[in-house]
Design goal:
Layout lengths: L5 E4 L4 H12 L5 E4 L7 H10 L27 H10 L8 E4 L2 E4 L18 E2 L5 E3 L8
Parallel strand pairs: 1-2
Antiparallel strand pairs: 1-3, 3-4, 5-6
């Protein structure tokens, strides 16, 4: 089964690395977009957020970003203002976003990606922190 999968990836992020490896464990080689170097367009970002069922505010990353310094915690800011900040500072885009024909998700935690992948996993999967996600038959644990 070949399906088109795209991941907006940050290789420095453990959650993003785990998500990428879960996609590969399903036998899929995704299109990997390192979004810090190649951020999505405004239209792409708006569509990803909406398709994932999130608000713009829910798609912003606070930890390790200039979120506080930029005053983005101000509830009076509009979605357009927040999107402007995310596009100017892509580190503010939470990650990883994954797009498949089965849906779009912000894969936090990383195993959320399993909801939008075919059931083609090739055996067990354990995250970098040691948490087991898939058993030896490739079935979701928990």
């Amino acid at each position: 089964m070949t399906i088109e999968v795209t991941i907006y990836h940050n290789p420095a992020c453990g959650t993003s690395r785990n998500t990428l490896e879960m996609i590969r464990n399903a036998g899929i080689e995704p299109t990997v977009i390192e979004y810090l170097a190649n951020p999505p367009s405004r239209d792409q970002l708006v569509r990803m957020i909406a398709d994932a069922g999130l608000t713009v505010r829910e798609a912003i990353r606070e930890k390790g970003t200039p979120y506080a310094e930029l005053g983005l915690d101000n509830p009076a800011l509009t979605d357009d203002q927040l999107l402007d900040a995310m596009l100017k500072n892509p580190i503010l885009i939470n990650r990883p976003f994954v797009i498949t024909p089965m849906g779009t998700r912000l894969a936090r935690p990383s195993e959320v990606v399993l909801d939008i992948l075919p059931d083609t996993h090739k055996g067990a999967f354990t995250k970098e922190d040691g948490e087991r996600v898939l058993d030896a038959e490739g079935k979701r644990i928990g």
